[in-house]
Amino acid sequence: MDWTEISVEVGADRIDDAAAIANMTVPYGIYIEDYSTLEQEVLEIAHIDLIDEALLRQDRTKAKIHLYIDPEDNIGEAVQFLRERLTAAGIAYTIDQSSVKEDDWLNNWRKFFRPMPVGERLLINPSWFTDTDPKGRLILNIDPGLAFGTGKHETTRLCMEALERCVKGGEKVLDVGCGSGILGIAAVKLGAESAYGVDIDETAVRTANENAAVNGVKDRFTAVAGDLVEKVTGKYEIVVANIVADAIIALSDAVGDFMTQDAVYIVSGIIDTRADDVRQAVRDSFEIAEENTLGGWYCFVLRKKQEGRSMTTDH
C-alpha cells in the first residue's frame, strides 16, 4: 500500500522548532531539506567543493521537512497535529501531501546521506557506500529508513558524542526510545558489555534488531517493543534517551529505578525553548554533569543526586 508523504515548508530560521514538532508527529524517521548552510556542510561532510547547480539554485531562506504516514495511520490527525503545533509556536508554514510507494520513500533518503564522522571515534556509513575508508574510526552501518536515528540529526550526534565520553568498557546500557538502535549499537562498538533497547513502535524495534545484526552485535544488543516500566528490568550503568522534552519529563521519576547508583543518564531531543523545562523536571532526582548544545538542541548528562557530592556543569 502507498504511504502518504507530508511536506512542511517553513522559514529556514525556524527549522529547528518545526523539526521538533515533526518528530512528535511520527514515530519513525523524517528528513529535512535545509540549504541555508549548503557550502559549509558539503565541505565538512563530503569534503568536496563542487556542488550540483540544482542545489545551488535552491531557496536558502526556506527549509522543508518530509514526513511519511503509514497507510494504517490517520493522516488527518497527523496533519491537524502539525497545524495546531506550528500555529501555536508562531511558525509560518505551508503543508502539502502526496502518495508515495514505500520503496520510493526509502530510496528518496539516499541523496541526503553520505558517510559521516561523529565525535572522535565513530563513522556512520550508509550501506550503499561499500568502499568507505574509516580512517581508524569505528564503522556503524546504518541506513536511513523506517526508524528515527541516522546520526544526521543534532540530537543523535550529541548523544553519540556523550556515549564516547561515558563508555569506559564493560557497561550495561539501556536505550529508551531506541529508534533505529544507533545509540545502543554505538555503545557496544565503543566497548559496552551489552545494550538493551526499548521502543513503543514495533517497526523501530524490528529495524533496530536488523541493524544490530548488520553491525555484528546482535549477541550484545537486543530491542523489544513496549514501554520502559513494562519491558525493562535490572540496573544499568548508562541510560540514554533521545526522545522529546515531554517524554523525558514524564520519565524523570521512573528512570532512576533502572540506574545503578553511579550511572549516567544521557538525554536529548530537547529543543532550546524546552531546556529549562527539563532542568526543572530533573532537578529533584538528578544533577547535571554535562550540558551540551548543537544547532539549537540540548543534551544533558545526568547523575543521581547523592548527599555530599557536588557536580559541576560543562557547557
Quick summary:
With 315 residues, the protein is an alpha/beta fold.
Question: Please, could you describe this protein's structure?
Answer:
Helix content is 31%, strand content 29%. The protein is built from eleven helices and 14 strands. The longest helix is centred in the first third of the chain and has 14 residues, at 75-88. A hairpin with a 2-residue loop joins β13 (286-294) and β14. The termini are far apart. Residues 38-53 have low confidence and may be disordered. It has two domains: 3-111, 2-Layer Sandwich (Alpha-Beta Plaits), CATH 3.30.70; 147-304, Rossmann fold (3-Layer(aba) Sandwich), CATH 3.40.50.150. With 315 residues, the protein is an alpha/beta fold. The protein is globular and about 50 Å long. Strands 10-9-8-11-12-14-13 form a seven-stranded mixed sheet, sandwiched between helices. It has a four-stranded antiparallel sheet with strand order 2-3-1-4.
